[in-house]
Design brief:
Blueprint lengths: L5 E4 L12 E7 L6 E4 L3 E5 L6 E2 L10 E6 L2 E6 L6 E3 L2 E3 L1 E3 L5 E4 L2 E7 L4 H4 L6 H23 L14 H19 L9 H18 L8 H19 L3 H14 L4 H30 L3 H14 L7 H22 L9
Parallel strand pairs: 4-5
Antiparallel strand pairs: 1-3, 2-3, 2-12, 4-6, 6-7, 7-10, 8-9, 8-11, 11-12
Helix pairs in contact: 2-5, 5-6, 5-7, 6-7, 7-8, 8-9
Length: about 350
C-alpha cells in the first residue's frame, strides 16, 4: 500500500525508507506483523478507507486517533472514538508518545518508533503481545498500590456520630498499654541463650536491607512497593531507557523518600539524559553546518523529546528555536522551483 503519507508493509523487518519520519508496527490484532512507515508529521489512524494508517480492527472507530509532531514531540490525540486509546495502563484522550511506546486502538496493540532509531532496532522483531499486556497490567496494579499508600488510610465519620476527644483517646491507650505491661512482663526476665541470640542476629540481618532505610511513617508494605518500583527502574536503566527508568525511580521515592539507591540512580538517569541531549544538540549543529537539514531536524526532535517534561530548560528552548528555523528553511526550499521550471 503506497500513499503520500504512509507506506504499508506486511512485515516487521523493513529497512529504513526514503523520507521516513517514524513507523508504527502492529504487535497484536488482525493486522499483526504489519509495519506502517510514516512520511508525514500529521496522520490519522482508524479503520476507515480515507485514513492514513488503516487497520482492520472492527473495535476501532473509522477515524480513531491522530498522531502529530509538535514542538514538544509526537502527540497522540483521540478523535472522539467510542473507546478512547489505552496507554500506560489507562484509557486516555491525549498524550505524548516516544519511541518504543505502545498503545491500544480497539483490540490492536501498536508500537511507535522514531526515524532516529538504528536500523537494527527498526528491523528487530516485535515484542510478544502477552509481555506487553502483562506490562500494562503490572503498571495498573503498581499505580493503584502507590496511590493508595501515598494517600494513607481514610477514616470516614458516620453522620451524626460524636467526635471523640483526641486527649481522651491517647490517655486511654496509655493506660491500656500500661496494664498489658504489668500483666505480662516479668520483673526478672530469663537471660537470652546463645541460640536465641544467634536467631535474633539472623532476623536482624534478614531485615536490615529493607528496614535500614525506612523513615518514620513508611510501613513494610510501602517499602516493598518502593523496592519493586526501584528494580523496574533499574532494569530500564540497565537497558539504556533512561526516561522510563526515571519514572520508576520517582515512583519509588514518592512512596519511600529515603530510598537511597532510587535517589542515586535517579540522579544518574538525569545525567545520562543530559549527556544524550548535549550529544543530540551537537550532532544537530554539525548536520546544520554541513547542510543536512533533515538530519539536523531529527536530532533536535530527539533532544526535545528527552526534555519534554522540562520545557523551561535552556537547552529545550534552544532546540525549539533551532527546529522552527530549520522547519522554515525546509519549507522554503520545497517551494523553490527546480532549475528550468517556470520558464516559457
Amino acid at each position: 500500500m503506497e500513499s503520500a503519507k504512509v507506506t504499508r508493509f506486511k512485515a516487521t523487518d523493513v529497512p529504513r525508507q526514503q523520507g521516513e519520519v517514524g513507523r508504527i508496527r502492529v504487535i497484536k490484532g488482525p493486522d499483526k506483523g504489519t509495519t506502517y512507515v510514516l512520511k508525514d508529521s500529521s496522520l490519522v489512524i482508524g479503520r476507515g478507507e480515507d485514513v492514513d494508517v488503516m487497520i482492520t480492527d472492527i473495535k476501532a472507530s473509522r477515524a480513531h486517533a491522530r498522531l502529530d509532531y509538535t514542538s514538544g514531540g509526537w502527540v497522540m490525540s483521540d478523535l472522539g472514538s467510542a473507546n478512547g486509546i489505552f496507554f500506560q495502563g489507562e484509557y486516555i484522550r491525549k498524550f505524548g508518545v516516544a519511541s518504543h511506546d505502545h498503545f491500544t486502538v480497539g483490540e490492536t496493540i501498536l508500537e511507535f518508533l522514531t526515524h532516529t532509531e538504528s536500523t537494527r532496532v527498526l528491523m528487530a522483531p516485535t515484542r510478544p503481545a502477552q509481555a506487553v499486556v502483562q506490562q500494562d497490567r503490572a503498571l495498573i496494579a503498581q499505580r493503584m498500590k502507590v496511590q493508595s499508600m501515598a494517600k494513607g488510610p481514610e477514616i470516614t465519620q458516620k453522620a451524626g456520630a460524636k467526635k471523640e476527644d483526641p486527649k481522651k483517646i491517647m490517655l486511654y491507650l496509655a493506660l491500656l498499654a500500661g496494664g498489658y505491661y504489668f500483666m505480662f512482663m516479668d520483673d526478672n526476665p530469663p537471660p537470652k541463650t546463645q541460640e536465641t541470640k544467634k536467631e535474633s542476629k539472623v532476623e536482624k540481618d534478614q531485615n536490615r536491607g529493607l528496614a535500614s532505610y525506612l523513615p518514620p511513617g513508611v510501613g513494610r508494605e510501602a517499602a516493598k512497593s518502593a523496592e519493586q518500583s526501584y528494580w523496574e527502574g533499574f532494569r530500564e536503566y540497565r537497558e539504556g531507557h533512561y526516561l522510563r527508568a526515571k519514572e520508576h525511580f520517582e515512583l519509588a521515592l514518592q512512596v519511600n523518600p529515603a530510598h537511597d539507591l532510587a535517589r542515586f540512580y535517579l540522579k544518574s538517569a538525569d545525567k545520562e539524559i543530559d549527556d544524550e541531549v548535549k550529544r543530540m544538540l551537537m550532532a544537530a549543529q554539525k548536520a546544520t553546518v554541513a547542510g543536512r537539514l533533515r538530519e539536523a531536524k531529527g536530532y533536535y526532535e530527539t533532544a526535545m523529546r528527552a526534555m519534554f517534561n522540562d520545557r523551561s530548560n535552556p537547552d529545550y528552548i534552544e532546540a525549539e528555536e533551532a527546529l522552527k528555523k530549520l522547519t522554515n528553511e525546509l519549507t522554503e526550499s520545497n517551494r523553490v522551483p527546480a532549475s528550468g521550471e517556470g520558464k516559457q
